[in-house]
Amino acid sequence: MSDIFNIPVRIYYEDTDAGGIVYYANYLKFAERARTEFVRSLGFEQREELESADRFGFIVRRAEVEYLKPSRLDDLIEVSCEVM
Q: CB neighbours (10 Å) of residue 31?
């Protein structure tokens, strides 16, 4: 199993500013989607875990973003998360 997990994310109108460019903070929302899908791919049912008596969940300890170029409306980007 690789420590890096990737998902495709389509850029919708709601993700962009008036110029059609993704607002910088939205990349963290995209990363959260990748993290959620990664945990799901491992077989964890997050809602069930949080509602259980043990209240088991995963947390984000660190997030790092490197902005290389802007994403725009209708782009399909690849978002990844990595277990460190």
A: 19
CA distances from 43 to 29, 51, 53, 64 (A): 22, 16, 19, 26
17 in active site: yes
Helix, strand, coil percentages, rounded to 5, for the chain: 30, 20, 50
Distance CA 77, CA 6 (A): 10
Q: Are 5 and 80 in contact (CB under 8 A)?
A: yes
Encoding tokens for residue 60?
């984000």
Confidence of residue 70 (pLDDT cuts 50, 70, 90): very high
pTM of the predicted protein model: 0.79
Find the catalytic residue in 17, 54, 74, 75.
17
